[in-house]
Design goal:
With 218 residues, the chain is of the alpha/beta class. Helices cover 42% and strands 11% of the residues. The chain is built from 9 helices and 6 strands. It has a 6-stranded parallel beta sheet, with helices on both faces. Strand 2, helix 6 and strand 3 form a beta-alpha-beta unit.
Length: 218
């Protein structure tokens, strides 16, 4: 069987930590008297925490110093981490485990390509870190999606070509990054948001092994 590289984003794809980011950003926004809704949150998906803060400050038309921004970023991350204290494998999204197990059983390469700086502890808490042959997170790259650096680095660590890689993403920026890298982009979420993806699934429960097998054989 062919060997392909399957690269997974983390938040909103493997685990449901996206909601905790939203709650942490919302708490900060409220303290700054900025209205921050789930619709606004779509703009934050897949982008760095520095850019996320800038987007929120733009919503409130707030000019801030570097020191203020640094303080708020630390504050937001502390709130976010407080939500992760009791995290376990129950946070893994439906349908993810059968896909990871199928890929492992078929000797496929698996990597993580995430903007999260907390990716490794999250994978450890959910007891799935051993599935990954390579992990690239926010600590390893300097350019945020839609720059493809995180996925290019993952392919490099797996010693595979870009055209041999398949990316699972739930954000527009992530899909764009995969497309720029000339990798097969698979959107996990809504058609209307992720329409630039080559394939789109509502979640992993709607993806079958035949689909994965067809990707491997390509």
């Amino acid at each position: 069987m062919n060997k392909k590289a399957f690269i997974f984003d983390l938040d909103g794809v493997i685990v449901d930590t996206a909601k905790y980011h939203f709650l942490a950003w919302q708490k900060l926004a409220q303290e700054l008297n900025i209205e921050f809704t789930t619709e606004h949150n779509e703009e934050l998906k897949g982008v760095s925490r520095v850019r996320s803060l800038d987007i929120i400050l733009e919503l409130g038309k707030i000019d801030a110093s570097h020191e203020e921004k640094t303080k708020w970023l630390i504050q937001k991350n502390e709130v976010y981490l407080s939500y992760l204290v009791d995290m376990d494998e129950r946070e893994i999204l439906p349908g993810v485990m059968p896909i990871l197990e199928f890929l492992k059983e078929n000797n496929q390469l698996i990597a993580l390509g995430s903007a999260s700086k907390n990716a490794r502890p999250i994978l450890e808490k959910t007891k799935i870190i051993h599935y990954f042959d390579a992990i690239v997170d926010g600590n390893d790259v300097s350019n945020a999606k839609p720059d493809p650096e995180v996925f290019l680095r993952a392919a490099q660590l797996l010693n595979t070509s870009n055209k041999n890689a398949i990316v699972f993403e739930d954000s527009v920026a992530g899909i764009q990054a995969a497309n720029v890298a000339q990798m097969i982009s698979i959107g996990i979420g809504k058609n209307e948001i992720l329409h630039e993806a080559k394939f789109i699934f509502k979640d992993f429960t709607t993806m079958d092994f035949d689909f994965i097998e067809a990707l491997i054989k390509k």
